[in-house]
Every structure is written in C-alpha cells, then in structure tokens.
Write a structure and sequence with these properties.
The protein is mainly α. The chain is 59% helix and 4% strand. The protein contains eight helices and two strands.
C-alpha cells in the first residue's frame, strides 16, 4: 500500500474481523455505484437487464429471456430490493426492450445503443472507487479475498 504502517498498526488491523470490513465495503461501493448511475438517469438493475439481453455483452446467445430466466442469471448479484419486473417496465417504456408473446424480453436497437452509452461511464466510476489504490494492491486484495472464500468452503466466482 502507499500509506506508511508500523508493525503494531498492521497487527491491529490484521486482528479486525474480515466480515465486518467486507460488509461495509460492499454496502458502500454498491451505494456509490447506484448513486452515480442514478445521476445519469438509470438504475443498476436496468443496466444489468440490458447487459444480460445484449448479444454484445453478457447474453450467451442474444435470445430473449423471461423475467424468471433473467432473475436466475442475476441471482448472485441482485439485491433483495431489486424489482426486475418494475425495472423492465421502465425499459419497455423507453423503448429499450420489447416483450414477445411468450413473455420474453428482447433488447432493441435503442436499448443496445443505450447500453453502450451507459457502459462508457464504467471506467470513470471505477476510477473514483479505486482512487489512491494501485492495481497491485487491488490485485493482492482480490487474491486474499478469494483465498478466504476457499478457506471457508466457498468457491470464488471466476
């Protein structure tokens, strides 16, 4: 890290509970990302819907998906308060999605253009979150967290 630490300070820091700090970091970063996106006129779940339906992003095949399929695809990062049905209705109203007779949602050309525009803000938001943290420290932190996940019987996402 770029800050100077004494052995005592490092020892005190190392004794602190990881679950407390990872929980605070998770809540703070999610709140920050969502506030940045809201200032740009969209929500994080709306962006995820577009990404999961885009053949140029997460969608494996570019085919439409039902809300249940989208919910399943996003299960590891959706929050309890996220309402995909309500978010999809907003995107349908904007013309960024369409719904077919089987209830599948499809991204429109306008939705694809919006997804690409929204994605342009990702590096700036990342830079704000990572300010003062060099890539080597960040990589070390991620590797340490992955190891803790394995140590506790979990499987780090790839």
């Amino acid at each position: 890290m770029t800050d100077q630490h004494t052995a005592e300070t490092d020892a005190e820091t190392a004794a602190q509970p990881v679950a407390y700090w990872t929980g605070l970091a998770h809540e703070a970063t999610i709140a920050f990302i969502r506030a940045e996106q809201a200032a740009l006129g969209f929500t994080q779940p709306q962006y995820w819907l577009l990404r999961n339906l885009s053949p140029h992003d997460i969608s494996p095949d570019g085919h439409g998906m039902t809300l249940a399929e989208l919910h399943d695809a996003m299960r590891t990062y959706l929050r309890r308060e996220d309402d995909l049905a309500a978010e999809a209705e907003v995107l349908l109203g904007r013309g960024w999605l369409t719904r077919d007779g089987d209830g599948r949602l499809w991204i429109t050309d306008e939705g694809e253009a919006a997804r690409a525009r929204l994605k342009e803000h990702t590096p700036r938001i990342r830079d704000l979150i990572h300010a003062g943290i060099d890539d080597a420290d960040y990589a070390t932190t991620v590797r340490v967290l992955q190891r803790m996940i394995r140590n506790t019987g979990g499987t780090p996402a790839t």
